[in-house]
Amino acid sequence: MKIMVINGPNLNLLGTREPEMYGDTTLETIETRLASLAHELDVELEFVQSNSEGELIDHIHRAGTRADGIVINPAAYTHYSIAIRDALAAVSAPAVEVHMTNVHGREPFRRRSVVSAVCVGGLWGFGAATYEGALRLLVDGLNADEIS
Ligand code: CA2
After folding, report:
1. Residue 25 CB: number of other CB atoms within 10 A?
2. Is the entire prediction scored with pTM above 0.90?
3. Which domains, from first to last, does the chain contain?
4. Which of 24, 71, 78 to mutate to test ligand 1, by most ligand atoms within 8 A of the CB atom?
5. Whose CA is nearest to atom 20 of ligand 1?
6. How far is CA 86 from the centre of its chain?
7. What is the 3-state secondary structure of 20-55?
8. Is the Cβ–Cβ distance between 26 and 14 less than 8 Å?
9. Model confidence over 19-73: pLDDT tens digits?
């Protein structure tokens, strides 16, 4: 089983800026932790991060042919990118939406997600561990044939 982990704009800065909001864990450390979980779950991961909407869409398209599932934090694009929503809707690989922060406890514009409706589920608010929770739930669901 192969899962693509896709991170959107500015998440390359994790651990270097705004630690009070996003914690002090770098994206590299998050990916290392996910790789270790993937070993335990016996799945293969591919990590991508981009600050560009078009590149993220290309990665989603590639996941559609190369991966069995997607863990995605679209970052700010979550709240307004219909193009990313359409890309997720267009591929057969199921996606889980991830946010490190509790987006429902922040500014009103962060409470709206245009991608949730085309994802199988979402997890938010648990910092870096949110990614691990999402990966575990996605893989468990795929293994049990409860997600397609
Ligand atoms: O909570 C999340 O994971 C978000 O997806 C993060 C996005 C934000 O726009 C979403 O509303 C919620 C922002 C990512 C910015 O990441 C930074 C990391 C370090 C320093 C500055 C920004």
Report:
1. 18
2. yes
3. 2-143 (3.40.50.9100)
4. 78
5. 17
6. 16
7. HHHCCCCHHHHHHHHHHHHHHHCCEEEEEECCCHHH
8. yes
9. 999 999 999 999 999 999 999 999 999 999 999 999 999 999 999 999 999 999 9
